[in-house]
Design goal:
It catalyses: lipid IVA (E. coli) + CMP-3-deoxy-beta-D-manno-octulosonate = alpha-Kdo-(2->6)-lipid IVA (E. coli) + CMP + H(+). The chain has about 450 residues and is of the alpha/beta class. It contains 19 helices and 13 strands. The protein folds into two domains: about 220 residues, 3-Deoxy-D-manno-octulosonic-acid transferase, N-terminal domain (Rossmann fold); about 190 residues, Glycogen Phosphorylase B (Rossmann fold), CATH 3.40.50. The chain starts with a helix and ends with a helix.
Length: about 450
């Protein structure tokens, strides 16, 4: 009887938390509609995006079974691709719907997903938009990537009997503390109790999910899909354009600063100047996290006397080029494939939280990154365990010294590149098969009954 009373109290607390959340969401719904009208004036593509965000589909639903994958942004969306490809091959009769929440992710996934996958923007987390979305698409299963806990989306899906999974499940300390705070904890407990499969990336995250309300029986360690995705990308054929750029790098000492943030670019300028004192024929390639900042970066570099070639302008790398600026979205993996050393940014200064290092390692780069990498620290430790010399964490001074060593020591450079590839091969081994078998057992069997 006591247990029953406790369950009833939990249910009441969850209903109150959901009512509070729904009230807040509904109060901002008029602002979302105003945003839609504003974006209508800015261009048709943005208007279509916001129609989909309000739950209005832009495609008809094909007949038959449909599996829905959801990822908020670029990295999470790309991580889903190996499973989507496996699903397409294993069950070709099933329609696959992929949703995302950002324009950048939509743009990248549009280029990388198979044409038969339906790509849409996810609905905002209001009851009306979510209901409209679910009524139209009527998925037989919903698979969320990494850390997508949207109360209305999850709970309304569960009410409709849709089996739910989270792959590459993350739960940062910050998110854990936020969800643990009253009155949010009953709401997240209600959400997590609806999942049939949660595949966390570490023991630490598994414990956090269970403390917040996930059943231990739904927790399964399957591996990190980012390794499989990175390995798959590294095997793609190089385009004619990239072969031409690679030819322009001959006789240059090249390193790539990838996914950089504004404060890091100041450091990269200092590092280039310091390296230039001892490394001949030096070329620094900068690929900012936000390519839209390219013009600003170019002006800053030119004011300091650098000879800059810009990718989006089609400019070639000459013998006098100091910096090559990659300001086109979706090309980073292509450049990883043609450079020997990559510094993965978003990591050099406090307040940053790192970016995916697996893509650079899979391409055969020596991987350098900073100490401020957020949840990617787990990946750093995991890769170092699989291959001790696969990733090197540095501060600004350490980056200068490490780059100088590798740019002037060909034998050491070759050895470390092999170490990085070895770690990715180990991490990717069997992960897609394990994920798919778990989806078959815990999700699709329920979905296809």
């Amino acid at each position: 009887m006591a247990g029953s009373g406790g369950d009833e109290e939990d249910d009441v607390a969850a209903r109150r938390a959901r009512a509070l959340y729904t009230g807040v969401v509904m109060s901002i719904t008029p602002l979302l509609h105003l945003s839609l009208q504003f974006r209508r004036l800015q261009g048709h593509s943005q208007y279509c995006m916001w129609l989909e965000r309000l739950g209005y589909p832009s495609r008809k639903r094909p007949s038959g079974l449909l599996i829905w994958f959801h990822a908020v942004s670029v990295g999470e969306g790309i991580s889903a691709i190996p499973v989507i490809l496996h699903c397409r091959d294993a069950r070709p009769s099933i329609t696959i719907l992929m949703t995302t929440s950002t324009a950048a992710a939509h743009s990248v996934l549009e280029q990388r997903l198979p044409p038969e996958v339906i790509l849409q923007f996810a609905p905002v987390d209001t009851p009306t938009a979510v209901e409209r979305f679910l009524l139209h698409w009527a998925p037989q299963a919903a698979i969320f990537m990494e850390s997508e806990l949207w109360p209305t989306l999850i709970l309304q899906s569960a009410v409709k009997g849709i089996p739910l999974a989270i792959l590459n499940a993350r739960m940062s300390l910050k998110s854990f503390e936020r969800w643990s705070a009253s009155p949010m904890k009953p709401l997240v407990a209600s959400m997590l109790s609806r999942f049939s499969l949660i595949a966390p990336l570490s023991n630490k995250e598994a414990v956090r999910y269970q403390i917040l309300g996930a059943a231990p029986s739904v927790i399964h360690f399957l591996g990190n899909l980012k390794y499989a995705c990175a390995l798959g990308d590294s095997k793609k054929e190089r385009s004619v354009g990239m072969t031409d750029i690679e030819a322009q790098l001959v006789d240059r000492k090249v390193w790539l600063a990838a996914s950089t943030h504004a404060e890091e670019e100041e450091a990269i300028i200092r590092i280039h100047k310091e390296l230039n004192k001892s490394v001949s024929h030096l070329l620094t390639i900068i690929a900012p996290r936000q390519p839209s900042r390219g013009q600003h970066i170019m002006i800053k570099l030119q004011r300091q006397g650098f000879n800059v070639a810009v990718r989006s302008d089609g400019q070639r790398i000459s013998g006098s080029t100091d910096v090559y600026l990659v300001d086109i979205l979706g090309e980073l993996n292509h450049f990883y494939a043609i450079v020997p050393i990559a510094f993965v940014g978003g990591s050099l200064f406090q307040g940053l939280a790192g970016h995916n290092i697996a893509e650079a390692a899979a391409a055969g780069c020596i991987v350098l990154t900073g100490h401020h990498v957020g949840h990617f620290q787990e990946m750093v430790w995991e890769m170092q365990k699989m291959s001790p010399f696969s990733v090197i964490q540095v501060n600004e001074d350490g980056l200068v010294n490490t780059l100088r060593k590798f740019l002037t020591d060909e034998a050491c450079l070759a050895e470390r590149r092999v170490a990085a590839e070895r770690a990715i091969s180990a991490g990717a081994s069997g992960v897609v098969t394990r994920v798919w078998e778990s989806l078959e057992s815990y999700i699709l069997k329920k979905a296809l009954v």
